[in-house]
Amino acid sequence: MQTEILERMESDVRTYSRSFPVVFTKAKGARLTAEDGREYIDFLAGAGTLNYGHNHPDLKQALVDYLMDDGVVHGLDMWTDAKRDYLETLEEVIFKPRGLNYKVHLPGPTGTNAVEAAIRLARVATGRHNIVSFTNGFHGVTMGALATTGNRKFREATGGIPTQGGAFMPFDGYMGDGIDTLAYFEKLLGDNSSGLDLPAAVIIETVQGEGGINPAGLDWLKRLETICRRHDILLIIDDIQAGCGRTGKFFSFEHADITPDIVTNSKSLSGFGLPFAHVLMRPELDKWKPGQYNGTFRGFGMAMVTGAAALKRFWSDDTLERDVQRKGRVVADRFQQLAAWLTDQGIESSERGRGLMRGLDVGTGDNADKISEEAFKRGLIIETSGHDGHVVKCLCPLTISDEDLLEGLDILDASTKAAFS
Amino acid sequence: MQTEILERMESDVRTYSRSFPVVFTKAKGARLTAEDGREYIDFLAGAGTLNYGHNHPDLKQALVDYLMDDGVVHGLDMWTDAKRDYLETLEEVIFKPRGLNYKVHLPGPTGTNAVEAAIRLARVATGRHNIVSFTNGFHGVTMGALATTGNRKFREATGGIPTQGGAFMPFDGYMGDGIDTLAYFEKLLGDNSSGLDLPAAVIIETVQGEGGINPAGLDWLKRLETICRRHDILLIIDDIQAGCGRTGKFFSFEHADITPDIVTNSKSLSGFGLPFAHVLMRPELDKWKPGQYNGTFRGFGMAMVTGAAALKRFWSDDTLERDVQRKGRVVADRFQQLAAWLTDQGIESSERGRGLMRGLDVGTGDNADKISEEAFKRGLIIETSGHDGHVVKCLCPLTISDEDLLEGLDILDASTKAAFS
Amino acid sequence: MQTEILERMESDVRTYSRSFPVVFTKAKGARLTAEDGREYIDFLAGAGTLNYGHNHPDLKQALVDYLMDDGVVHGLDMWTDAKRDYLETLEEVIFKPRGLNYKVHLPGPTGTNAVEAAIRLARVATGRHNIVSFTNGFHGVTMGALATTGNRKFREATGGIPTQGGAFMPFDGYMGDGIDTLAYFEKLLGDNSSGLDLPAAVIIETVQGEGGINPAGLDWLKRLETICRRHDILLIIDDIQAGCGRTGKFFSFEHADITPDIVTNSKSLSGFGLPFAHVLMRPELDKWKPGQYNGTFRGFGMAMVTGAAALKRFWSDDTLERDVQRKGRVVADRFQQLAAWLTDQGIESSERGRGLMRGLDVGTGDNADKISEEAFKRGLIIETSGHDGHVVKCLCPLTISDEDLLEGLDILDASTKAAFS
Amino acid sequence: MQTEILERMESDVRTYSRSFPVVFTKAKGARLTAEDGREYIDFLAGAGTLNYGHNHPDLKQALVDYLMDDGVVHGLDMWTDAKRDYLETLEEVIFKPRGLNYKVHLPGPTGTNAVEAAIRLARVATGRHNIVSFTNGFHGVTMGALATTGNRKFREATGGIPTQGGAFMPFDGYMGDGIDTLAYFEKLLGDNSSGLDLPAAVIIETVQGEGGINPAGLDWLKRLETICRRHDILLIIDDIQAGCGRTGKFFSFEHADITPDIVTNSKSLSGFGLPFAHVLMRPELDKWKPGQYNGTFRGFGMAMVTGAAALKRFWSDDTLERDVQRKGRVVADRFQQLAAWLTDQGIESSERGRGLMRGLDVGTGDNADKISEEAFKRGLIIETSGHDGHVVKCLCPLTISDEDLLEGLDILDASTKAAFS
C-alpha cells in the first residue's frame, strides 16, 4: 500500500491511522476492507458513529435517491422537505412514544458544536456560568466544550489558556465502593463557601465513552435528576456516543427514567456516518434569538435524509432495542470470561457497560494495547479508552450479524490469550 | 406548503427560513426550487459553500460512484484511498503550481473547528496566547473562535462569559481615508505598555464576508505579512469564505502575493456542500502530538471524494479563474450602476468586492432588507451582510451560467428600483 | 452617638459596623472603648490582625520614636534601615531557629496582594496555571486570589465573570468521617482524564479562618506535603490569619512539621494593625524579574518598625508560644462546656480549633448570631464564621490578660444561656 | 552601608533600590537622608504618594496625638471617630465646594484594590463585563486590575493566563496629530461587529503617570464623558496618582469640568504615606450588598487621621492649588529649556504635564536613565516612566520649598548636560 503521501502530508495529530496503519477502500456492515483485500471486523464503528453499520443498503438507497433527484444538499438553515420529514419522523417515531416534548436546535454538524450550543443556552437561560461535568467525561474539544472535558491530552494543548466556566464532580463510583459521590455534590451545592459556583447546568454521559465505558448507576442518575430539580440546575444529557440505541434504548437516559432538560445528539444520528448533530431542549428553554448561534453546515440535508430513514427503519418498533440488549449480553458474557481468564493470569480485569457499549478493563494501557494490536493482526479493529487507555471497548454496529459478532469475539479471545500467554 | 411542524419544532434560533419562508425541494446549479414548483436564482449559494453550484453533475457522479462502490463514508482519521487521492490532488493541482508546501490537519468538518485548531496551534507553536483579529471579522462561534469574531449578536449570547485570548485591530480602511490602520497596529506592537499582548498570530479574511464584503487592499495585506514576519507573529488567513476561487484565485491571498503560515479552509472545499474543513500549516509549525485535537467527523470520506473531483475538474487549468474574474466584473458593473442610481435617489451607495464576492452597500440594513425582500418576491435569493446588514451581497455560484447571472442581476435591478421609487 | 454621616456616606458594603453599631474611640490591649465610654472585650481583634492587642505599648513606643526621628514612612521599595532591621530580625528570630531559608517578597500591604503574588509566582515557576485550594478556604477577593476563595458572596459579585485558574478540593474531614479527602485528590492527580489540570500549586490554611475555624489534621497536612512533592506541585501555606503565633507556633505549619515552598503572611505581621504583608519563598523559586510585581505601599516603613519590634519582643523565646497554648486550652475547655450545654438544649454543638484560634459550632448562623448579639449587649465583641456563619469564633489577642480572657468567656457563657434558655 | 542582607533576603523583584542603591534613614519634606548622612532632594516622592512631603509636621502631630491617645489603629470597617471625622471633612472640604455627591467605599488600602472594587461595581451595576482602558494606562497589577493595565512587564508575568474583561483604546494623541482617537472609540461603539463588547465602564487617568506623564486634552476628556453618557457607560476616573492636588486641583478631572460616575483614590490620600484608598461612587451606583467586597485593612484608622488633617490643612482654601500651578509652570519652563537644549544636541525632546506632574521626554529609556543616574550622583532622586522608560518625570512634593525645587531643577540641568555633552 502506498502511504508515503499520507504520512508526509497529514499533520502529526493523526491517530487512528497509527493504530491501524493500512489503507481502507471499502466498508459494508460490520466489515472494512483494506487496499490489499484483507477484511477486518469493525468493533470500533466510527467510535459509535456507525450504529447501523457501514453503508447500510436502505439508508444508502434513500441517500442516492435524494441525490439523483437533486435534493437540497446544502441549504444553511432554510426549510426543505428533508428537514420537515426529519422533524416529523423524530416527533412521531421517537418523541411521541416516549412522551417527550422537545424543540430542536440544529447547530453545526458535530458533537462539540452541539455541546457548545447546549451549555451556552443553559447559561443564557439561567444567568449563571458554571457547568458541572464529571471525572473522565468527554464532551468535545472546542474551547467552550473543553471546559467540560476531562482529558489532559486536550486540556494541555490550549497553548496555556485555562478553560473557563466548568467544574468537575466525581462520577458514579469514582471514589470507590461505599462513597456516595452525589452526597459530595450535594454538600458542595448546599455550602455557601464550597468554591462551587451554583451551576447553570450539569452535563453528563450516562455511560462514559472515551472515559472508559463507565455506566452511571440508574438510581444514581435518577438522584442526579432530583438534585438538579431541587437546585434549579438544568440537566444536560450528552447522548452523542451513548444515544441512538447504543445502550439498548434510543436515548441512553430512558433506562434511568429521567427527562433531561437538554439533550445533545450526534455520531450515529444520521445513521450513515454523515456529520450531523442536534440539541433538544424543553420548549420553554428556547431562549435563542434568531441567528444567535450559527454554522455553515447546520441542518445538513443528506444527513436528515438518512437520519429520517434510520429512524423509520430501526425505531418504529422495538426489534432493534431487544436485539441490542441480547447482543449486549453476549458481549458481556465473553468479556466476563476474558476478564476472569486475565485475572487468573495475574492481570486484574473486569467487564462493564450497558447494551452494546461494553468495556473490558485490563488494568493498564499497555495491556490493552497488546490486545488491540494482536486483534488487528488477526482481522479485528477494536480500540481502547479510559484515562490510561486501559479499557478495550466494543462499539460494534448494533446491526452486526451474529456471525460477525461471534467471529469478532473469537478473535478478541485468541488475541488476548496470545498477548498474555 | 406545510410549515407548521418546522415552525413549531425548530428552535427560534433559525434565521434563513425567516428571510425565505418557503420549503425548498430541489436544487441544481444556480437554482433552487420550492415545493410549489417556483424556481429561485441563488445568489447566496450556501453563504459561499456552493461555489460550483448545487448538485454539480460531475461531483454528484463521483459521489454516487463512491457510494455504490461501498467506499468508506466514515472512518475517523483512518487512512482511505479517498483521503490519499484528496491529498495527492491537493498537492498536485493546488500546492505545486503555487509553490506552496503545507501539511494538512483535518479537524472536525466545520469552519469554526478549523479556526479553533489553527489558533490553538499558533498558541502552542509560539507560547503566546493573544490572537489578533479585525473589526467586522467573522471566524466562527464556538468559544475559542468567538474570541476572534466581532459580532455582538454572538458575543452577547455567551451567558455573560467574556471571550479570552483575542484582541481586535481596525481592518483596512476602518478608520477612514488617510488613516493607516497598520500604522496603529505597529505602534501598539512596538509599545511595551500599549495593552496589546504580543500576539501568537493574526487571523484575517482577505475579503471579509459576514462583515460586509470588505476587501483588504493588496498592499495592505503585503504589509501585514511583513509586520508579522518582523515581530515573529504567525499569519493565519481564514479562507473559509473567500477561498476556493471565490475571489478569482483558488486562495484569496494569491492576489496579494503573500504566503500565510496557516490557512483555514471549509465551505466550498468539498465542492458539493458537504461538511469539510482543513487547516494548512507550514510543516515546521506542526507541533501537534498524536490525537491532541480530535473530532468524530474529521476527514469525512464523501467530502474528500467530491473535494478531489472538484479540484481536478475546476483547478487543473485557469479557465474557472478567468471566468470568475470576468463575471466578477459583470457584477461589479451592475452593482456600480445600481449604486449610482441609488445615490441619485438620495441613498448614498457604493460597490465593492473582489472576484465574485461582491457587495452593494446601501447605507442601512433597512434599505438592504427592502431590496432583498423585493428580490425574493421576484425569484432571486440574495442576502445582506455587514455590521448593520447594510450590504447586499452576491455570492452566486462561480459556475453560474451567463443567462442566470444576468437574470439574477436584472431581478436585483428591478427589485431595487421597486423598493426605492 | 452621631452616626448619621457614617450611615449616609459609607457604601452599603460596610459590614462590621452593622454587627457592632457603636462608634469606637479608644483601644488598648484586649479592650475597645466606645464614644459613650462603654468598654468592650475584643475577641475579634481585627479578625486576627491584633495578636498582640491594640496599641501595645512597646510597639507604640518604637513607632512613635521612629516618627519623631523622621524615619522613612514611605519609600516604595527603596532600602531603609527599617527594612534592613526587619529582615535581620526575621532571619535571626524566626528563620534560623526553625531551620528555614526563605527569600522575602514585599508586595502591596494586604493579604490578597500577597496571595496574588504567591500564585502568580507559582505559575511562573512551574509553567502551569492551576492553583488548587480547598472547600471553605478564603484567600482574598481581588480577581486572582478570588479563584482560590470559596465564598459565593464574593464569587457572585464579580458581575458575571468567572474566576479562572483555580480548582477546589475537599478539605480535611469535608466528606465526613472515614472518607479520605486526600485519596480523592491523589486519584484526580493520577488520572489523565479527571478534569484536574496538573496544578502549579496548592494553597491552604492549616486552620481555616473565615471557613469556620477548621483545623486540618497534622498527619493530613504532612501527607499533603508528600503528595505535592511527589507530583512536583508547590505547597503554599496561607498563614495570613493562622500565622504569627495564633495557633501556638509562629508559623501554623510548624505543628505539622512541614516546610512549604511558599508562605503568605499579613494581618498580625506588623504587630500593630498596620497594613503589611509578605511572601516567603524558597530561594530557587524567586523567578521574579525586577519590577514584575509592584504596589505603591510595598515595604511600608512603619509596619517594618513595629513588625521587627514585635518579633524581638514576643518571639525571642517561647514564652508567648507556651502562653498561647495554655490559653487555648482554657478557651477550648469553656467552648466544650458550652457545646455540651447547647447540645443538651437540643442544639447540636461542638468545639474545634488550634491554639487561640477556636470555634464553637452551633449549627446555624441564626444560632451564632443570637449569641454574638447577646454578647455585644453584655460587652463582648465576638464574631461568627463558616459557610453559614454558624461558628462563633475566638480570635482574642494572644496577649490578653487572664482576667480579660475569663471575663470574656463568662460573658459568652451568659450570652449563650440567655439566648437559648 | 551594610546592604548584604537586603540583597540576599529580598526577592529579585525589588526595583527602586537598584536605581538608588543606598540605605535611607531619614526623610523630611522634600529631602531623604541616607545612612552616610548624604541628603537627596526627592522628585519621586513615593511615586506621587507624598504630595505633602515626608513627615509633614502637622500631620505627624495629628498622628502621634492619635497614637498617644490610644486611638483605634485597626478596626476592620467598624465605626470610629476617626472615620467619622474623615468622612465629615471629605464632605465639607472637598465634596460640597465642588458640588459633588458621592458615597465612599473603603476597600483594602491600596490602589489596585480600589480599582478592583470600582470595576467590579461597574460590572454589577451594568450587567456588562467589558472595561475599556487606554494605551499606556496603569491601574494596578492584581488580576482584575491588570486587565486594564497596559504594561507587558506585568501582563507577561501571569504565568500564561490572559487577563479577561478588558479592552484597550488609543489614548488622546496616541495615533498622532490629526487623528481623533475618540472618533475611533465611537465608531467601535456604534458598530455591531467591531469586536468591542459594549463596555460597563471606561477607566482612565486624566494624566497618565506610569505611562509617561501623558495629559489627556481637556476637551477630549469632556467628549469622553459625553460619549459615555450617550452609550450608558460608566466613567471611572482613576485619580490615584493624578489626584490629591497633583495637577493643581484636588481632583484631576476638575480641569475638564467633568463628573465621573466613579473615582478611585489612593497614594497621597492619607497625606503621610500611609496605605489608604477609597472608591467614590454616585449614590445610585452603590449596588454592594453588605460584605460583598472586603479586606482586612480597609478603613485604616491612622490613615484617616492624617487624611482628614491633610484635607483641613491644605484644602480649606485655594492656597495650595495656586501654589502647585505656579510651581508647575516653573518646572515646565525648565523642562522646556532642557528639551530645547537636548534637541539642539540631536536628542529630540519635549516637555509635557499638568500642575506638578511633569515629564521630560528624551526619546529613549537609555537617555532617561543616563540623566537619572547623573542626577542621583548629584543628590537628586528622579525617576523615569513611559513605555520605554523614556520620560524623566517630576513628582516632587507639592509643598516643596522654592529653594529645594530650584536646587533640584539645577541638579537636573547639570545632570542632563553632563550626560550629553
Automatic annotation (TrEMBL), chains A, B, C, D:
<dbReference type="InterPro" id="IPR005814">
    <property type="entry name" value="Aminotrans_3"/>
</dbReference>
<dbReference type="InterPro" id="IPR049704">
    <property type="entry name" value="Aminotrans_3_PPA_site"/>
</dbReference>
<dbReference type="InterPro" id="IPR015421">
    <property type="entry name" value="PyrdxlP-dep_Trfase_major"/>
</dbReference>
<dbReference type="InterPro" id="IPR012773">
    <property type="entry name" value="Ectoine_EctB"/>
</dbReference>
<dbReference type="GO" id="GO:0047307">
    <property type="term" value="F:diaminobutyrate-pyruvate transaminase activity"/>
</dbReference>
<keyword id="KW-0808">Transferase</keyword>
<comment type="pathway">
    <text>Amine and polyamine biosynthesis; ectoine biosynthesis; L-ectoine from L-aspartate 4-semialdehyde: step 1/3.</text>
</comment>
<dbReference type="InterPro" id="IPR004637">
    <property type="entry name" value="Dat"/>
</dbReference>
<dbReference type="InterPro" id="IPR015424">
    <property type="entry name" value="PyrdxlP-dep_Trfase"/>
</dbReference>
<dbReference type="GO" id="GO:0030170">
    <property type="term" value="F:pyridoxal phosphate binding"/>
</dbReference>
<dbReference type="InterPro" id="IPR015422">
    <property type="entry name" value="PyrdxlP-dep_Trfase_small"/>
</dbReference>
<dbReference type="GO" id="GO:0045303">
    <property type="term" value="F:diaminobutyrate-2-oxoglutarate transaminase activity"/>
</dbReference>
<dbReference type="GO" id="GO:0019491">
    <property type="term" value="P:ectoine biosynthetic process"/>
</dbReference>
<keyword id="KW-0032">Aminotransferase</keyword>
<comment type="similarity">
    <text>Belongs to the class-III pyridoxal-phosphate-dependent aminotransferase family.</text>
</comment>
<dbReference type="Pfam" id="PF00202">
    <property type="entry name" value="Aminotran_3"/>
</dbReference>
<protein>
    <recommendedName>
        <fullName>Diaminobutyrate--2-oxoglutarate transaminase</fullName>
        <ecNumber>2.6.1.76</ecNumber>
    </recommendedName>
</protein>
<keyword id="KW-0663">Pyridoxal phosphate</keyword>
